[in-house]
Amino acid sequence: MGMAAGGKKGVKADINITPLVDVVLVLLIIFMVITPMLQRGKDVKLPSAHKSKKDDPKATDPMILSVTSEKKMFLEKDEYATNDLLKEAIKSKLQVNLATPILLKGDVTLTFSDVRKVMDVCRQAGAKGVKLGVEEQKDK
Q1: What whole-number distance in Å separates Cα of residue 14 and Cα of residue 67?
Q2: Is this model's pTM higher than 0.90 or not?
């Protein structure tokens, strides 16, 4: 007989970890591919702040408004060349839910007046408030 179950030496109790390693590697690849897609808005280097107020967990999902270092404006992933086009896009998204907050992610290289102009566009579009996105500094 080609296969002996137990035999004289007893039951073989080795653990086969090859399937476990295969599953872990597949999960690692999936997370490496999916994680960059989870970020909303454009990639900008945010200014840092010591402490930020935590958001209300019951709050609705905000609209992400990004302003890059080249002063290009993006609402989620869509680019808007002028303030008027951006204002109309914000108005149309606010018509669905007027209470939708706006999260403004401005690059750290922008001046205050650049960010203020975009905040004015949001106010003119009917936004109730604009939150500024910052990167929290780690205390040492």
Answers
A1: 57
A2: no
